[in-house]
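Risk register update: the risk of archive-format incompatibility is retired. Evidence:
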Amino acid sequence: MNIEEGTATVVRDALGKRCVEVTFDGRRYTKSGEKPAAPREFVFLFDDSISVNVLSFPTCGRAVLAAQGPAGCPPGSKVGTGRAEFYGGGEAEVAVYNTRFANGMRGVLITVPALGTILDNTLEPVRGTYRRNYTLGLHEIVQPDGVPPQERGATSRFVVTFGATWHGRSFVESHARAGRPLDLGIWSHYVTGQVNLTEGQVARP
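Archived output:
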């Protein structure tokens, strides 16, 4: 069984006031020390005071990112950074790009350029009881690639920051007053059927 721990931080970006950057820092491991089970999907959950300004930033298409790498994406489309640490050792940089999917939905592409990995994250309103604390989530579904789940690589730590500025706009904003606790979380679903929810609060800067 996977065990998850995580923290989140929120800081003001270069524009200040309502403009922020949100970082999720998640760790996963097993009691036995074995490789964690492969993920099926994740949802990054954002406080109900937070908005994500996908319409104010240029977009990078998945096909462009896959064919040309980050160099092919237009200026202003990069909206986040991060780092992946892998089970068994090694790490790699992570980058986040604003995108529009073929079905018209908006969201981001989280990529590990060194591995050629691209993860689709659709921006969606949360549903059910999650609406008590959250308004939006970035929903990531890990597509099967023919590799058996037990043979897939696994991360022991994944850090991702959502935040950027472009022509006077911030990618992430919060209308909460300074000092108010912000709810942030990560919902996880693994190929074993296990479901986890890691939640916490951080003061609005």
